[in-house]
Amino acid sequence: MSGRDLPPIDYYLCPGDIYLSHELSLVSTVLGSSVAVSLWDSERMLGGMVHFLYPFTADRRMATARYGNVAVRGLVKMLLEDGSREKDLKRT
User: Fold this and answer.
1) pTM for this structure?
2) What is the rounded CA–CA span in Å between residue 49 and residue 74?
């Protein structure tokens, strides 16, 4: 039985969350006035998603994944630290 024969991980992404996985995953979320961004590295079969509520914060004390500039930067950093190359990252 290969890894592709296993059912995907089912994950619900809440606002302010970052999800990253090497495993086949079905990530769902609900968007209202929030935004979700997903990135995929097909070379490494690694992907992730962020769900944020606010576009930007410059206040370091409020720098959480609820803000787009923090969440997207955090996801990219996690992918790069896991071995992805920036040129291999694609929006999905």
Assistant:
1) 0.90
2) 10
